């Protein structure tokens, strides 16, 4: 009998290993032998979670190979092995996507040069006046907004461009931070979204600048960032707000991503159908009417990749 061998697709992880190792270690530390179907270990364990050799056993690879993967000493890994490791660590869909995105080479580039809100999106913003709308770019940078979004949060036109970022504002702007009644949940979610974005270009200077400042200035951000939690932008969600003028109300977010580039995301913040939200939006509409027309920042934003 003759065997025909086929080359397995390989992922080049030489550049991704810096981020991949800590992520795998964090997930390994979360698991117990009981959770993965292994019998109880004899004696005292010196590590939390699974040992490397236990993950290797579950994935069907050698302990040395898995150790080199975690330590960033492999230049490539087969897609089959990567899938086996993801299964061994019981990764969810978002976590597996993060690992596979990191393992791609070259890194998926964020758009170079000037990144702007295109004319069609700018026109859409100009005609949307019933609900707050934000246009987000890579790393949750705020590229565009309408006047009702400014009435809800703050006048984005007065915010320095490097600080027009949803995560930066949620953690470091006292006014925005105080608006979220479920701030811890919002903060954790923002960090998980940011790390997922980071997988596409982990060596980005813009990312390093943003994460460096947030880690230095906010302990919660530092702790949550190092926990290696990841999540995709949800297509919908609900948040509770406390506005200094409009009072307390609840908004549902509807998120739409540009399919052709995956670089920009539109976020619509829709009030829940109740009297409290209707009253709050009447107050926001009055604030919006007093603001200067929001300048669609066409050509006013530059990404640093």
Automatic annotation (TrEMBL):
It comes from the Bacteria. Pfam families: HTH_31, MLTR_LBD. InterPro entries: Cro/C1-type_HTH, Lambda_DNA-bd_dom_sf, MLTR_LBD. Gene3D superfamilies: 3.30.450.180, lambda repressor-like DNA-binding domains. GO terms for molecular function: DNA binding. Residues 49-96 form the HTH cro/C1-type domain. SUPFAM superfamilies: lambda repressor-like DNA-binding domains (SSF47413). PANTHER family: BLL4672 PROTEIN (PTHR35010:SF2), BLL4672 PROTEIN-RELATED (PTHR35010). This is HTH cro/C1-type domain-containing protein. It comes from Mycobacteroides salmoniphilum.
